Amino acid sequence: LSHGGGGRAMRDLIDEVFAAAFRPDAMEDQARLSDAALTELGARLAMTTDSFVVTPLEFPGGDIGKLAVCGTVNDLAVGGARPLWLSAAFIIEEGTEIALLRRIVATMAAEAEAAGVRIVTGDTKVVGRGAADGVFVTTTGVGAIPPGRDLAASRIRPGDVALVNGVLGDHGATILAARGDLALSTDIRSDCQALGHLMEAVIAAAPGTRAARDATRGGLASALNEMAEAAGVGVEIEEEALPLRDEVKGLCEILGLDPLYLANEGTLVLFVPEAEAEAALAAMCARPEGRDAVIIGRATADHPGQVRMRTAFGGARIVDMLVGEQLPRIC
Amino acid sequence: METGLEIRVRGQVQGVGFRPFVWQLAQEFGLRGEVFNDAEGVLIRVAGGDLVAFQAALTARAPALARIDAVEARDWAVAVVPETFAIVPSRGQGAETRVAPDAATCPDCLAEIRGAGRRRGYAFTNCTQCGPRFTILRQLPYDRARTTMAEFPMCPACRAEYQNPADRRFHAQPIACPDCGPRLWLERDGAELPGDPVAGAADLLARGAILAVKGLGGFHLACDAGNAEAVDRLRARKRRPAKPFALMARTADLAGFCAPTPADLARLGDPAAPIVLVPGTGALPETVAPGMRHLGVMLPYTPLHHLLLDAVGRPLVMTSGNLSGEPQAIGNDEARAKLGAFADAFLMHDRGIARRLDDSVERADPPMVLRRARGRVPGTLPLPAGFEEAPQVLALGGQMKSAICLLKGGQALLSHHLGDLDEALTWEEFLTAIADYGRLFDHRPARVACDAHPGYRATQHARTLGLPVIEVQHHHAHLAACLAENGWPRDCGPVAGIVLDGTGYGPDGTVWGGELLLGDYRAVERVGHLAPAPLPGGDAAAHEPWRNLLMRLDAAGLADVADRMLPDAPRDTVRAAVRAGLNAPLSSSAGRLFDAVAAALGLCPGRQSYEGEAAMRLEALAGDVLADWPYAFEGLDPAPVIRAMVADLGAGCPKPLIAARVHAGLARAFAKPARVLVETGQARAVALSGGCFQNARLLSETLSALRSVKVLIHRDTPANDGGLALGQALVAASGELPQMERSRS
Ligand SMILES: [Fe+3]
Ligand SMILES: [Mg+2]
Ligand SMILES: [Zn+2]
Ligand SMILES: [Zn+2]
């Protein structure tokens, strides 16, 4: 692939790869959107943007395209918005295989379709070798928050119950195993998935849902810490309740990593009032994205801002936010 | 106008019966005047008798718990000398701000509980020479109303003793008797058992039960140390497979299971009543302290312990009553909730514990405090010359063996052992300790010192205090702690510091831990270090010794040997992670080198069940075996040692001998360049610090390799991270920000 900035080959690329995969309106310079979704009284517009870089570009369970759709859809969904539209911008390193690009774009289209969002505008730039690492994708998402819905971490109250929709760390472990040349054969696959439908189902079953967050970079530990901090509550989770695959656990043990800090791309944590916990759990379990949903803990009035994990032995460990690289502390 | 003497006494002289002692001396020598506590200690004004004899007796016969740092006498000119000698109220700001450490039952009180008087068999007997102090203190000043004894109004008999300057219970704040003091009972499933609680408890113990016993600074879990089945049951319930249990035994029973030296006996009998590491004889079940040659032994230190040991007549396991990893329980309800699953019954009382204090752990020869806690705190250390004008500093210590240190008025107060700050209750203890010691010391810090490790919770906390923060490199702090406790003056010149340790954050992005430093409080230069190896998995390498063996074998060109020695380990994945730079920082850690050797010798295959297990087993394995020759390092590179060890193992050389050669080799490898620094005039002495120097074998090998050189070692403060805060405080107070310099080479 050799395409200078804006030349004929570039247009070929757009036409051939992108226009073929996305609906024609997707590649307009400007999306013109109807306000039908926003005409309900009290509806609010939600907008989010994220850039995606990952090595390798394809990994068991997904690729960067899927990541770029799901990541932005999930950002909207955990904020309570119904995802509607996406933009997608690509920075492509010269020399990137065209077939790879086709696959990435194809998964994006399929994932958007499944998530019920439309990719309505986009852009591509090709840069010289070394100026980017393969493909970088930036997606911006727009969604609508229905009237009366207000999810915010600050609404979490002591006693609220914390749930996750599935096993932890699969994405981070997948990327590590794929990248590190670790001489390991694992069946671990990224959990990369869109959570918009799941959120709608949970909110329908548990209308008092306080807040949700997708446990992406920094893992569950970071998501819980941010929520505890924002709400001014403590959070207590049960080590034995945390859903972990044996393979992820094993990989973490070998590498000396804590699965609580591994990235997820289709795992969210949410807080609901205790009275609605069972309903929320049932709603999650009824959907494929929430098959492995469990209650992991609760918010407390004690130790505001701090996350603690009750261990199997009955003690409690402080689960901090990840600060940079983990360096050994045992002296 | 009469003339007399005004005598200032400095040191630990408050709350230890010093004023009544002075009063009695004044009666004896026919003196008149007064004595009182003030902010600086005790002030005595005397006239009209044998002043020379009085002064001599003041130091010669001082109460056992007193520590006199200085006695300064000058003329006392007064218009009218009082008619009598009197103890008068405390004076001045900051008076009565001291409290003494808790002290073991004194011989007089012991005689009373065994005698026929009103305190016969009374578990809470004490006097000014013994009993609870720091553990019952709620607030200062130290008087009964501000202790957990406030709930127990004195009976007339106790009050009379309390008010009589001639009585050894004069102003003994926790004074008590069966009529007015705390009550002891035995309970099971929340119900009190009838009969004598001590006899009932002894009976249960004799039948193999596990008992929770409320002590001075927390609860213990006790069982018959000679009953292997009971010991196993305790291990299973506590989920503590191998970490040595402490023992409690009467002096007369010691010979039945251990062989204390005279130095051990002296230390056992110290009023602090620490756990002392004493050579075992093999008479007790191996499971009491698996793989160890030494047993951790303490004498009964409260009347309750004496009564219980007298009744049961055999040594007891006395391990701290806690959930795995947590601090020990101190409240009755807390203990019931947490220890209910471990203990068959509770020996309870209703005197509150205000402050959680573990038992101190010590060695007698060479004298060494391994864990500084009950009986040692809140004792202060005088600062070395040059620090008289030091600002008030709060130092927050390390991460795993947390202890804090406060500097003020030429004294350092190093707190008790707190533990691992990731543990939620220990973290709360840490925050409490900062507030608590700050109040106690009337402390207004001008700056806060901490480690340079960004991931230590203490370091993160330092940044929230709104004070200037001084980050001190880990091993610089270890070195400074050693200098401080040896009274090394601030401007006495540089020393060579051999700091052999677990891991510490290095300014060059690697993890330090086997260091030869040159410098002083202000700054150090890294002049040498162990050749680094990766720590695969970061802290996982501290839990799993084989990881270090794998790396050291690979580094020594013995990858094929590693494949043979570690057939079941995920070697290739670990090696790949190291190649990929995935959580495998380079480290010069000496502790991890010991781990590698321990793994090679088959100690701790798999995972250590407690921190330091591999190294402790290695030290125990070396025992007293003489190293015929030390393994030779290449400079500070252990690769040749690893190769020699592997060859010896292949040749069937006894493992204890290999362990001995490793200890001797490491000691010599560092002693040699350190000696050169001294002999060329670059250093004035050698200081030994870091957690590895809690290994007595390594310490004695290093001392003998440094014969004829001036060597400074830890005695009263831990060489491990329990002493870190002291060093941090001194570095922060030394006037300049620490200058970290890069390696010479
Ligand atoms: Fe250390
Ligand atoms: Mg985002
Ligand atoms: Zn006494
Ligand atoms: Zn009484």
UniProtKB/TrEMBL annotation, chain B:
Active-site annotation: 19, 37
Every YrdC-like domain range: 195-375
Pfam family for this entry, one: HypF_C_2
Single GO term (MF): zinc ion binding
Gene3D superfamilies, sorted: 3.30.110.120, 3.30.420.360, 3.30.420.40, 3.90.870.50
Keyword Hydrolase assigned: yes
Acylphosphatase-like domain residues: 4-89
UniProt pathway annotation: Protein modification; [NiFe] hydrogenase maturation
GO biological process: protein maturation
Domain of life: Bacteria
Recorded catalytic activity of this chain's protein: C-terminal L-cysteinyl-[HypE protein] + carbamoyl phosphate + ATP + H2O = C-terminal S-carboxamide-L-cysteinyl-[HypE protein] + AMP + phosphate + diphosphate + H(+); an acyl phosphate + H2O = a carboxylate + phosphate + H(+)
Record key words, sorted: Hydrolase, Ligase, Metal-binding, Transferase, Zinc, Zinc-finger
Homology family: Belongs to the carbamoyltransferase HypF family.
PANTHER family, per database record: CARBAMOYLTRANSFERASE, CARBAMOYLTRANSFERASE HYPF
Purpose: Involved in the maturation of [NiFe] hydrogenases. Along with HypE, it catalyzes the synthesis of the CN ligands of the active site iron of [NiFe]-hydrogenases. HypF functions as a carbamoyl transferase using carbamoylphosphate as a substrate and transferring the carboxamido moiety in an ATP-dependent reaction to the thiolate of the C-terminal cysteine of HypE yielding a protein-S-carboxamide.
Name of protein: Carbamoyltransferase HypF
Originating species: Rhodovulum kholense
